[in-house]
Amino acid sequence: MSRDLLKKYNEKRDFDITAEPKGKVGKRAKTNLRFVIQLHEATRTHYDFRLEWHGVMKSWAVAKGPSYDPADKRLAVRTEDHPMDYNDFEGVIAEKQYGAGPVMIWDKGTWKPEDDPDKMEKDGHITFTIEGGRMKGQWHLVRMHTPDKRENWILIKGKDDFALNKIENADFLKRENTSIVTGRTMDDIRKAGLGKTTERTKALKLEPIKPVSKPNKEASKPTTSLDALLKQYDEPELATLVDQTPEDDAWIHEIKFDGYRLMAFVSDGKVVLRTRGKKDWTHKFESLAKAIAALNVENAVFDLEACALDGNGRIAFGALQVALSNDEPEKIEGWIFDLLHLNGEALIQETLIDRKALLELILKEAKGPIHYSEHFESAPDLLDKACKIGAEGLVSKKKDSLYCGCRTKDWVKSKCGLEQEFVIGGLMPGKAHDKAIGALLLGYYKNNKFTYAGKVGTGFARELAHEIYQKLIALKTDKSPFLDKTPRGLREYIYVRPEKLCEVSFTEWTRDGRIRHASFKGLREDRSPKAVVEEIPQSLKEMTNDAKPRMKASAGSVAFNGVTITHPERIVYPDTVITKGKVAEYYAKVTPLMFPFVDKRLISFLRCTDGIGGECFFQRTAMEGLGSSVKSKTVTHKVNKHEYIYVEDEVGILQLAQMGTIEFHAWQSTLEHEGKPDQIIFDLDPDEGIPFEAVKLAAEDIRNRLEKVGLVSFPRLSGGKGVHIVVPIKPEHEWDEIKEFTREFSENMAREVPEAYVANMSKKKRAGKIFIDFFRNDFSSTAIVPFSLRARAGASIAWPVTWTELKKYKKANAITLENIDTKLLKNAEKVSAEFLKASQKLKL
Fold it and tell me: Are the C-beta atoms of 484 and 459 separated by less than 8 Å?
């Protein structure tokens, strides 16, 4: 019976001529079912849609290709079943053979039927969920009742979060016109004529993959350079802490290593080792870098952990600290557990189990201090066994998961005991030695606020206690860095700037948010302090009961801070490489800085769902699908009621970015004081031809005039043409009072210097002058939020600066998505902190 499944397939082909695989029925499976879509230029160009079932690929030819618009009904003609090996076929079917022409692997991944597939097929309605690089969410295949001898079905997109409207879907297939596996176009495949020897097959054999021939050979070089790899694989995948280890067969389990997480980037024999905090630590782990450079790869990206063994032969973080401090690289070893890229091919869209199989092949010949990280199938008491051998715990990973540069629930960690990183905010000197630590005051960040977590007073020997004291005393500060009060100690605390991290184990969290029975394990230098948050184990049961489809990072989606960004490859800024994914990545990076400026404020936002070259529109009211952290509020003003929105937390910013939001504009008052603004804004808007130097002089003029009435102000580059001057005030005055003050202030300037300023909105009167826009100081009026992108050519950003920094800038749109760096972010963080602390009384 099983042979009959592929009888028709085999009868149509001469395997002495065609490069297609012979028809052999594969192993039957009911989970981790695969799907593939192959773009096929035969007599007519079509998309072959294939679903694994009964050890073969059930197949349909979709003439117009899949559509993300649920209103579209795409004809899908049933064709013969294909063998499982056909999933890896990309090449050219020879002339005079059935289906002659080039074939591209357009998408691949896994599919999950909502009911028994045999039953659904018999009923003529197959409903399923897809997790691919380009195909996502729920889909339907519905059989048509027609007299046609062919078995005709219709492919329809389900109505879910991934669905697009007709406008959004219009250019979907035009944009997605390359191989999901090799990145080649149909012309590349036609010219190469590789047949069944695909780029993927070459990678599995560890043969160097040559770049596909293109008209401009130079253009293909950067794709595998170290710089390109460092940018492409920006973040590691992180596991979610859970309260128990998953036990079903969908998971594999690895030992949780107690060391430094690294990503290794390899190209042409050169290696860069980068930490989670994106620090280049190649020099600290030279022996690992040397061993990785010797591997039989042309270019690659590995995920690994650097560790050291203690005197008992167990992996211990303290032993790693000693090895680094004593410059003993020979004591450091690396366990490699994932492979993201190999010889020009991105592997993040491959399943974990396939990536690990390929990784194991590569590491079989490895020499020196690097090892393949073995994995285990699910078994009872696996965590207990790991704990007994001294491991920190387990990391459990879904076999069919793709690689996501984010924290994900497809990887979960279960620990033998509680431990995590904390930021040091102070110290208590030792009893016997005043230049040694007796205890450390620990904290973490919650809603961007540094929160006290308790003390640790054990785990450091005398020499280490002196060493840590010397490192911390240089950071001494007179003021406590903690948001909340710290309990009084036996000896006086010395507070320090929260810049140093440490690893601490403890028994439990108390009800008031303190750690109990803590023990110091070592200092850490691989992460940013702001990235340290409270780790509370999530319920595995609740996670697995969540039926909502999750999107994994792949060629078709990415996720940041738990928010899935669909179609990240969509170009947002025309004539650039700035995509929706890059916009979301930016907002994920600056959200901690940006959120305080939208926290508890009503906002309006500019959405450009098809990029800034398409239609953009302002929105200020809620609608279905904006996200769970985007909330609605009804505001009554002068009898009339109005609906507005606000974001509840940092996630809300990313949820709006997922919906195509580019710009964020906020009110000058908070929800708590919605009738009384807590800041004043003067927007300097120059007429065409006015040099930016004149705008800066006008800003200084406003600053000086404000100082005369006792008000400190802060400048911001608007990201457009002008500068915003913002004054933080106590929320004591009504909107009308504030508007009157700003009107009088602006009109006085215009009267005193009429040749330079105008305070009237009339375009005619603004000719050759700078318009002092005070109209943003009114009920429901908004101004661009600091750190918000602008929907303008160049991807400029509204950016807070100091008055000294303002002098050096030559234009208001000087800060762009392409030129922000660590220094700019740090400076902006300091300016923002000063602004947020300030609160002045406005005397009217």
Answer: no
In terms of DSSP bridges, do strands 332-342 and 299-308 run parallel, antiparallel, or are they unpaired? antiparallel
Angle between helices 650-658 and 580-594 (to 10 degrees): 160
CATH number at residue 265: 3.30.470.30
Give catalytic residues, as residue numbers.
256
CA-angle at 171, arms to 170 and 173, nearest 5°: 110
The answer to whether residue 656 sits within a structural domain is yes
CATH assignment at residue 463: 2.40.50.140
Our count of domains for the chain comes to 5
- Please tell me whether residue 608 adopts helix, strand or coil conformation: coil
687 and 656 in one domain? no
| Identity of residue 201 | T
329 vs 320: CA distance, rounded Å? 10
User: pTM of the full predicted structure?
Assistant: 0.42
- pLDDT at site 228: 85
Residue 809's alpha-carbon distances to 717, 722, 777, 789, 823, in angstroms, are 9, 12, 26, 18, 15
Instruction: Provide the residue type at 745 as one letter.
Output: F
Helix intervals (H) in 499-649 = 540-545, 580-594
What does each C-alpha distance from 320 to 367, 465, 523 come to in angstroms? 21, 17, 11
Task: Say which amino acid occupies 626.
Answer: L
How many C-beta atoms surround the C-beta of residue 258 within 10 A?
23
What is the amino acid identity at position 133?
G
3-state class (DSSP) for residue 211: coil
Rg (CA), the chain: 30
| Residue 373 shares a structural domain with residue 495 | no
Nearest to 443 by CA among 421, 459, 473, 458: 421
Q: Residues for the chain: how many in total?
A: 844
DSSP 410: E
d(CA 5, CA 82) in angstroms, rounded, equals 9
Residue 285, token pair as written in the block: 């782990």
* DSSP state at residue 221: G
- d(Cα 598, Cα 667) in Å, to the nearest integer? 8
Whole-angstrom distance, CA of residue 236 vs CA of residue 275: 9
CA dist 409 and 839 (Å) reads: 42
Residues contacting 610, CB < 8 A, separation 6+: 167, 168, 570, 660
Q: In 647-659, which positions are buried (b, 16+ CB within 10 angstroms) versus exposed (e)?
A: beebbbbbbbbbb
Structural domain of 505:
418-531
CA-to-CA separations, 265 to 43, 268, 272, in angstroms, rounded: 44, 10, 5
CA-to-CA distance for 99 and 246, rounded, in angstroms? Answer: 46
Question: Could you read off the pLDDT of 386-404 as tens digits, one per residue?
Answer: 888 778 889 999 988 888 7
Say how far apart CA 197 and CA 736 lie, in whole Å: 74
Separation of alpha carbons 683 and 668, rounded Å:
13
Instruction: Return the closest-CA partner of residue 749 out of 711, 715, 704.
Output: 704
Strand order in the sheet with 449-456: 449-456, 437-446, 418-429, 494-506, 519-524
Amino acid occupying residue 601: R
pLDDT tens digits, one per residue of 242-281: 888 888 888 999 999 888 999 999 998 899 999 988 889 9
Do residue 375 and residue 521 come from a single domain? no
Can you tell me the distance from the alpha carbon of 688 to that of 769, in angstroms, rounded to the nearest whole number? 9
DSSP-derived secondary structure letter, 530: G
In sequence order, which residues have a C-beta less than 8 Å from that of residue 170 and are 6 or more positions away?
Answer: none
Q: What are phi and psi of 438, to 5 degrees?
A: -105, -30
Bridge partners, residue 50, by sequence: 36, 59
Spatial separation of the C-alpha atoms in residues 203 and 181, rounded to whole Å:
11
Contact between 634 and 565 (Cβ < 8 Å): no
Examine the pLDDT at 209 and tell me if it is beyond 50: no
Beta strands (DSSP E) in 592-751 are 603-607, 617-619, 630-637, 640-647, 661-666, 679-686, 714-717, 723-728
- Residue 421 forms beta bridges with which residues? 503
Taking only the tens place, the pLDDT of each residue in 330-367 is 889 999 999 999 988 888 878 898 899 899 989 987 88
